Amino acid sequence: MLALTLTAELTGVTDLHPLDTSEEPYFYTFKVQCTSCRETHPNWVSIGRFESSEISGSKGEANFVWRCKACKRESTASIKDAPKTYTHASPPTRQTIIEFDCRGLEFTEFQANGEWLAKGLETPTKFTAIDLAEGEWYDFDEKSGEEVSVKDIKWEIRRA
Q1: Mind listing the pLDDT tens digit for each residue in 73-131?
Q2: 73 Cβ partners below 8 Å, 6+ apart?
Q3: b/e map 60-71, b = 16+ CB within 10 Å
Q4: What is the chain written as a DSSP string?
Q5: What is the pLDDT of residues 134-154, one digit of tens each?
Q6: Rounded to an integer, what distance in angstroms lies between the CA atom of residue 76 and that of residue 74?
Q7: Which residues fall within 8 angstroms of residue 126, CB to CB, at 6 or more apart?
Q8: What's the rounded Cα separation, in Å, for the pair 41 and 68?
Q9: What global pTM score does this model have?
């Protein structure tokens, strides 16, 4: 089991999470490494929790099925549950966003592509279309009259 964790400084917002519904799925984008031969795939790969592929020689399915080009071994990853929200904390704390059951592979780097959502810390304002790809995000909360932000973003992939 691997967990994608986030540590970030949230100012004026809380409950940060990816927009990940069956109508609008989020695709988690990673660098992947084979645990057999330790070869790292040169391209980024994406995994969505609403997509599944058949596992060769098995009746099972996984959200991501991958064959290593170096050793030809097939590996799988499945998303365990819906993503969790990252809540405001001072100082910022590491919190798990999503967990993966990985067999024969490891995710080594994460790229935050896609839309994220949050809500005002002390207002009912809902923030949509948050883009974390640049490592920070800024906006203005009309109800509080304050700038809001997500910055000092640190992604980690850890054993769960």
Answers
A1: 999 999 999 999 999 999 999 999 999 999 999 999 999 999 999 999 999 999 999 99
A2: 34, 36, 37, 67, 104
A3: eebbbbbebeee
A4: -EEEEEEEEEESEEEEEE---SSS--EEEEEEEETTT-PBPSS-EEEETT--EEPTTSS-EESEEEE-TTT--EEEEEE-SPPPPBPP-SS---EEEEEEEEESEEEEEEE--SEEEEEESSS--EEEEEE-TTS-EEEEETTTTEEEEEEEEEEEEEE-
A5: 999 999 999 999 999 999 999
A6: 7
A7: 117, 118, 119, 120
A8: 8
A9: 0.92
The pair of three-digit structure tokens given for residue 153, joined into one six-digit string? 């973003």
| φ, ψ of residue 13 in degrees (nearest 5) | -135, 165
Q: Give me 123's structure tokens.
A: 């207002």
Q: How far is CA 18 from CA 74, 119, 147, in A?
A: 29, 12, 21
